[in-house]
Design brief:
The chain is α/β, with parallel strands linked by helices. It has 7 helices and 9 strands; from the N terminus they run H-E-E-H-E-H-E-H-E-E-H-E-H-H-E-E. Helix 2 runs parallel beside helix 3. Bound molecules: S-adenosylmethionine (SAM).
Length: about 220
């Protein structure tokens, strides 16, 4: 996709997508969720959701993994991982409410550590077996707060930069991203071994891929 077309597509999406999906109850993968005002709707595209791809990632995690979900929104991915028996931490931007996913976890008897955090900020040097992220993948800066769920040019770059320091050796990240947007993060993605796990086609977004990313071994530390 050429640059002009990409930028036009991105601006349309950043304006349109936050308007899709109303707050209220939604049922996904056997979980009943409440979507609060100001929270990304997990099935915004005429009921289409990425839940099936997120469940696929959960099914591939080694047993009893220590898992981090960034930008949990209504909490589906974090709750699905906790339901599968993993030890889960989930973060969200400080201005996005976490009451509903906390209540859902309590109702289901699941333990999830929910934290307000800009990416890894609240996690100090903590490391995880798996990091899950359905990022604001459009390569544009948000112009309004509600666009932060979709447009994350600097957020996504910062995520790729900071990710290796939060994975245990052998750990990996599970990331959802349309092919058109992956092309914009080429230098950042090239730092990782990339495995395509599955893909689905969505209106407007195009082909959305679930990627498993593992940091490429860096040059040996001096003196080793
Ligand atoms: C595409 S939405 C995905 C939400 C949810 N995980 C899902 O799959 O339905 C991206 C999410 O990332 C959050 N987000 C954006 N920037 C972030 C940041 N710097 N730190 C943490 N979360 C962020 C947004 O608020 C939004 O909930």
């Amino acid at each position: 996709m050429n640059d002009l077309l990409y930028r036009a597509r991105t601006r349309v999406m950043c304006a349109l997508l936050p308007r899709l999906g109303r707050p209220g109850r939604v049922s996904l993968g056997g979980l009943e969720l409440e979507v609060e005002q100001g929270v990304h709707h997990p099935a915004p595209l005429w009921g289409l959701s990425v839940a099936a791809l997120q469940e696929l990632a959960v099914a591939r995690l080694p047993q009893d993994s220590k898992v981090l979900e960034l930008g949990t929104g209504a909490g589906f991915w974090a709750l699905a991982a906790a339901r599968a028996g993993h030890r889960v931490t989930a973060t969200e931007l400080p201005e996005v409410p976490l009451h509903a996913p906390r209540a859902a976890a309590a109702h289901l008897g699941l333990t999830v550590r929910f934290l307000a955090s800009d990416l890894f900020e609240a996690l100090a040097k903590e490391r995880f077996d798996a990091v899950l992220f359905n990022p604001p993948f459009h390569d544009a800066e948000p112009r309004r707060p509600e666009e932060r769920a979709w447009c994350g040019r600097s957020t996504v770059r910062r995520f790729f930069e900071e990710l290796p320091a939060h994975l245990v050796p052998g750990g990996s990240a599970w990331v959802l991203m349309p092919r058109a947007d992956q092309a914009r993060y080429g230098p950042q993605l090239s730092r990782f071994e990339r495995a395509l796990v599955d893909r689905r086609w969505f209106p407007i977004l195009g082909t959305l891929e679930l990627l498993q990313l593992s940091p490429r071994p860096g040059p040996p530390a001096p003196g080793r």
